[in-house]
Amino acid sequence: MAPSDDFPISRRGLLAGGAASVATAAVARPAMAEAAPSRAPASPPTAKVDFEVNGTAHSLELDTRTTLLDALREHLRLTGTKKGCDHGQCGACTVLVDGRRINSCLSLAVQHDGDRITTIEGLGQPGNLHPMQEAFVVHDGYQCGYCTPGQICSAVAVLDEIKAGIPSHVTADLSVAPAVTPRELRERMSGNICRCGAYSNIVDAIVDAAGVKA
Amino acid sequence: MKSFTYERVDTPAAATAAFARTPGARFIAGGTNLLDLMKLEIETPSHLIDVSRLKLDTIEPTSDGGLRIGAMVRNTDLAADARIRRDYGLVSRALVAGASGQLRNKATTAGNLLQRTRCPYFYDTNQPCNKRQPGSGCAAIGGFSRLHAVVGASEACIATHPSDMAVAMQALDATVETVDKAGKARRIALADFYRAPGSTPHLETALAPGELITAVTLPKPVGGTHIYHKVRDRASYAFALVSVGVVVQPDGSGRVALGGVGYKPWRVKAADAELPRGAKAVTSALLAGAKTSHENAYKLPLVERTLAGVLAQAKG
């Protein structure tokens, strides 16, 4: 997969190019050894999906196996959303679909026809950061930064969930609206793992952003 | 992942008709468990029927004073529903004790019931597993078994059912509503929904191939104090080692169900009757005939102590 023109050469692009060369060398040998023409494998089933990502409409024809995460990263080149475990255990792939946070790795892209998707790129950009992005910078809510896009998308949704009165495991009274407290935030953010251990600064950032919003 | 064809349907009738046309198909809704298993090629459907947009996403009152929860109601929405929080607190509590916020936003009521075991040997395709590959054996028996069943297991399988919500539903006498390939509707008590593993642990529920869950109904509210206590290896986002769900009335009577101990949410009517006599008596009735390994024997005293704590909390 060569980098597209609007995608500057990066370490990631170089690695992808290197992997492609290796793959070519590996398949070339059996083809040369056999005299008979090799038969191309049947192409996998595809399906069409139309959705809106960060305010822009997209129409894609995808291998049905494509996850929403891979559609965003590999087809739309929105690489802010990260692939961590690819099994819904780490939260690095968290995006907002119609305002609700989900693990984009555990969702098929073709199931999102008509949906409105927001990724970290859509929340804000350098020079025009979302208050949550700003707060993560101010409070140093990261170290390596790999989990950060997922943490921020998740955190934005968490504040909306609290505002909507959705209870959590640590909500003491189901008949009382939950509040923005560090305890509530820690519980609600448990689907986002940070292996650098920036958790305390992440909680500080979310508390700060919640104040900004209020 | 094996390749598959895909279609989206708008009605339960279209869903079951699509299944009848395409052998090897699976229904997909939230997909948080199915897609994960497809990535590992533990599930290999040749066709997916997307039922996530079926208009089964509402919670309606029933004629007998209960609630009918549409199969597609998301876990988050069910936990947050004002009637569920007020009258069926056990369901809210169990739901928010499970998974993560992201997963609860996607996972559906029917899918939660149908999620498959998290037995590590079921997930590891290099290991024998009678549930994944009938007849291949069970690597959990004699293996790493601290997470496994202590009641209801067989020589073929000692897997547990991972759902928290189902434990609450079981304590509240929920009923599963379905429609089959011929369009015929039926109701299955949740108590009769999960099949004992026996020699066929790959057959997990009473559903026939192509039968679709349309709703889960709860009978009219039973009042009382609702408590769900989940014991796990970390404070959040982990499956239960054991969990205890109770509804306790002011006179000390009530009902109790356990998670993390068997192939289904574990409830024994005779154990309910022991509630006024305390945790030891209840646990003896619940876990009579338990079979443990040296790795999961801890679950027996853990159930009793968790239940003792819960009953003390219910007294206030």
From TrEMBL, chain A:
Keywords: Iron, Metal-binding, Oxidoreductase. InterPro entries: 2Fe-2S-bd, 2Fe-2S-bd_dom_sf, 2Fe-2S_ferredoxin-like_sf, 2Fe-2S_ferredoxin-type, 2Fe2S_fd_BS, Aldehyde_Oxdr_Iron-Sulfur, Beta-grasp_dom_sf, TAT_signal. It holds the Pfam family Fer2. Residues 47-123 form the 2Fe-2S ferredoxin-type domain. It comes from the Bacteria. PANTHER family: ALDEHYDE OXIDOREDUCTASE IRON-SULFUR-BINDING SUBUNIT PAOA, OXIDOREDUCTASE, IRON-SULPHUR BINDING SUBUNIT-RELATED-RELATED. This is Aldehyde dehydrogenase iron-sulfur subunit. It comes from Sphingopyxis soli. The gene is paoA.
TrEMBL record, chain B:
Keywords: FAD, Flavoprotein. This is Aldehyde oxidoreductase FAD-binding subunit PaoB. Coiled coil: none annotated. PANTHER family: ALDEHYDE OXIDOREDUCTASE FAD-BINDING SUBUNIT PAOB, XANTHINE DEHYDROGENASE SUBUNIT C-RELATED. InterPro entries: CO_DH_flav_C, CO_DH_flav_C_dom_sf, Diverse_Substr_Oxidored, FAD-bd_PCMH, FAD-bd_PCMH-like_sf, FAD-bd_PCMH_sub1, FAD-bd_PCMH_sub2, Mopterin_DH_FAD-bd. Residues 1-223 form the FAD-binding PCMH-type domain. The gene is paoB. PROSITE patterns: FAD_PCMH.
